[in-house]
Design goal:
The chain is an alpha/beta fold. The chain has helices at 2-11, 24-34, 52-55, 59-75, 81-91, 97-110, 113-124, 152-161, 182-195, 203-222, 243-261, 281-292, 305-308, 325-335, 357-366, 386-394, 399-404, 419-436, 446-454, 461-474, 493-505; strands spanning 16-21, 39-45, 139-144, 166-170, 226-228, 233-235, 238-239, 269-275, 314-319, 342-347, 374-380, 411-414, 443-445, 481-482, 513-517.
């Protein structure tokens, strides 16, 4: 308590929000009870008012606690798989191999095994229950349902004892939330909502991240001499640089294709996608359809119900932000007369929040009993995650009904484009535009790719594709190398300004070319 008071005083903080994680929650409760005038908001995650030794009394419980202390003393931070499995199975049972390794490294760097045992012994004796009724500041309590370090009931108990507190259960087994799980996104959403903070208040961290990404970009270009686009292909001409993202989207593609080829159409496949603007979600859906529009001849080895279908897959794009009710109903009703499989891409499904007709119009088609495959992909970009977008949709008329038509397994997030993605989109667009015009773009100057990736005005896949086509028009027809100068019209001031700055920052990218192949 004295340490925390000293830190607050040295920083000159008059009033601040206090976040208490795990056993830090008890300390935060004690500080808030003593200094309610200094704390604007109290947030408790995975916290408890009562240590395990105080809460447990059976002989078996005490034996488990002693066993944990022994394992901590001999196994903390050793990297031994047996001990590592014990600690990670408690703190992050759903953690991946690299995350388990991270946790072991954290143990080594943070404290010694002997001191870890001392910490745990003290944690076991915690008891701040008598302070809970004294908490008068706004309080948010979040707790994972499957938490094995501090049980879910401990969080719920805090909520019943702290006056006017708000309790949020999280669907996770992890005491340490993983960044790729829905519970972490829900934690962020609820915390920001509670504090009244938006993404626009992240300044310093964003600046640091921007600088780090720029360094990664230079390293990527400097150490890459050739890119084979097929290694990064998800479907058609749609590519993603990150392997994890690429495989997740391939799984989504396969599910959509399976729905369009299925002979069991008693229930249509409906999908919900969240993605930030410019992530290429429309192009992704278009490319899925394009690959199906020209099915291969049927063979004995690869029979499919789709190939037996009389027609090709039709692609219908409906942007709810750009159409009104009569047009939307007309488009959807017209497709009902066709006997071909349809992939419907409904973009900006979270728009027109003040209207009731969008979801009233869509719902009958999501439940349609037609015998021809119909796959609906609903996409939006509101909020900071799928969790937040679903919350906004559910608050609208018929919104909860709409979400109920889409199983959890059919809900996907498409990550924003990385600098590597911007390079891939540019290269793929140049190759595709070259083929369409009878030209071969075999090499691209690395300085040109550096400019494209760094340019904040080229922040969407569509803008990158259009920019690539303009560059190709400026490249001499007999040339197979795209140079930095081809990015600009003659006399363009931006060319000279960027070129002069880059000479000092990235001289190694001048007159250095990256070979690109399909």
């Amino acid at each position: 308590m004295e340490d925390l008071e000293a830190v607050v005083d040295s920083l000159g903080l008059e009033k601040f929000a206090l976040l208490g994680l795990s056993h830090g929650g008890a300390l935060s409760i004690a500080y808030t009870a003593r200094h309610p005038e200094r704390v604007s908001h109290l947030i408790l995650y995975g916290a408890s008012a009562l240590g395990r030794a105080k809460a447990r009394s059976s002989m078996r419980d005490l034996e488990e606690l002693n066993a944990m202390l022994t394992l901590t003393r001999v196994g903390w931070g050793t990297g031994n798989p047996a001990y590592e499995q014990f600690f990670t199975s408690i703190f992050m049972p759903d953690g991946k191999a690299e995350e388990r390794h991270w946790f072991t490294e954290l143990q080594k760097k943070s404290t010694t095994p002997e001191n870890a045992v001392r910490f745990i012994k003290e944690f076991l004796q915690i008891n701040v229950q008598d302070l809970l009724p004294k908490i008068t500041v706004p309080t948010l309590i979040l707790h994972s349902r499957g938490d094995l370090v501090l049980p879910f009931d401990d969080g719920r108990d805090l909520a019943t004892r702290i006056p006017h507190s708000h309790f949020v259960p999280l669907n996770s087994r992890n005491h340490i939330l993983m960044e790729d799980e829905e519970a972490w996104k829900e934690f962020l959403m609820e915390t920001r909502k509670f504090l009244g903070v938006s993404d626009q208040h992240r300044g310093g961290r964003d600046e640091y991240r921007s600088e780090t990404l720029a360094q990664e970009l230079v390293s990527l270009l400097e150490h890459t001499s050739e890119i084979e686009l097929s290694k990064y292909r998800v479907v058609g001409s749609y590519t993603r640089y990150d392997e994890k993202t690429r495989n997740a989207l391939k799984d989504l593609k396969q599910k959509i294709v399976g729905g369009l080829q299925s002979s069991n159409v008693s229930k249509h496949e409906n999908y919900l996608i969240w993605a930030r603007p410019g992530s290429g979600k429309t192009f992704f859906a278009n490319q899925v359809t394009e690959t199906l529009a020209h099915p291969r001849p049927r063979t004995e080895k690869t029979p499919s119900s789709f190939e037996l279908n009389q027609g090709k897959v039709e692609f219908v794009q409906l942007n709810l932000a750009e159409v009104e009710e009569p047009e939307a109903r007309s488009i959807l009703s017209t497709t009902e007369k066709s006997d071909r499989p349809y992939l419907f891409f409904v973009d900006e499904v979270d728009s027109k929040s003040d209207r009731s007709w969008p979801y009233e119009t869509l719902l009958p088609y999501l439940d349609s009993s037609k015998t021809i495959p119909r796959v609906f992909v609903l996409a939006g970009s509101s909020g900071d995650s799928m969790v937040e977008m679903k919350s906004l949709i559910a608050s609208r008329p018929k919104g909860a009904d709409l979400i109920s038509r889409i199983p959890e397994s059919n809900q996907f997030e498409i990550p924003s484009m990385t600098l590597g993605d911007k390079i891939l989109v540019t290269l793929a667009s140049l190759r595709r535009a070259g083929r369409d015009t009878g030209r071969d773009v075999a090499e691209v100057e690395k300085l040109a790719l550096y400019y494209v990736a760094k340019n904040e005005g080229l922040d969407s896949a569509r803008q990158l594709r259009e920019f690539a086509m303009r560059c190709l028009e400026r490249m001499p027809f007999e040339e197979d190398r795209l140079k930095f100068d081809h990015l600009f019209a003659p006399g363009d001031q931006a060319n000279k300004e960027f070129w002069l700055g880059a000479r000092t920052i990235v001289p190694q990218l001048f007159n250095s070319y990256l070979v690109v192949r399909d």
